[in-house]
């Protein structure tokens, strides 16, 4: 099951890589000349995965900017 979830995560990152590259270059274009600059840009993506009755994982959504805030008691219990 974990191998399948890791596969979903890897394929998702590969599929959004061109968009991430474009966004990073648009922000860091003056600093980035085709090189990867460590620590210059970080992207957190939240992957929502659901397991079916056979424990097969299914990607539900990918959040570009997941919330890490704890604004309600429910958030505190979940996060």
Properties at a glance:
79 residues, alpha+beta, two-stranded antiparallel sheet, 2 helices
Describe the structure in your own words.
With 79 residues, this protein is an alpha+beta fold. The relative contact order is 0.16. The protein is built from 2 helices and 2 strands, in the order αββα. The protein has helices at 2-28, 73-78, and strands at residues 46-51, 57-63. The chain is flat, with a radius of gyration of 16 Å. The chain has a two-stranded antiparallel ribbon with strand order 1-2. The longest helix has 27 residues, at 2-28. It is 42% helix and 16% strand.
What is the element layout, followed by pairings?
Elements: H1 2-28, E1 46-51, E2 57-63, H2 73-78
Antiparallel strand pairs: 1-2
Brief rundown of the structure:
By secondary structure, the chain is α+β, with helices and mostly antiparallel strands. It has helices at residues 2-28, 73-78; strands at residues 46-51, 57-63.
* Major sheet: arrangement of strands: 1-2
Overall structural class, as computed from helix and strand content, comes to alpha+beta
Fraction in beta strands: 15-25%
Radius of gyration from the alpha-carbon trace, in angstroms: 16 Å
What overall geometry do the principal axes of the alpha carbons give?
flat
Main beta sheet: 2 strands, antiparallel
Mean pLDDT: 82
């Amino acid at each position: 099951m974990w191998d399948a979830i890791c596969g979903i995560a890897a394929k998702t990152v590969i599929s959004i890589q061109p968009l991430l590259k474009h966004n990073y270059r648009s922000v860091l274009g003056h600093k980035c000349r085709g090189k990867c600059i460590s620590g210059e840009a970080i992207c957190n993506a939240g992957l929502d995965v659901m397991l079916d009755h056979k424990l097969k994982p299914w990607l539900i959504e990918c959040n570009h900017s997941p919330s890490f805030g704890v604004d309600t008691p429910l958030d505190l219990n979940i996060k």
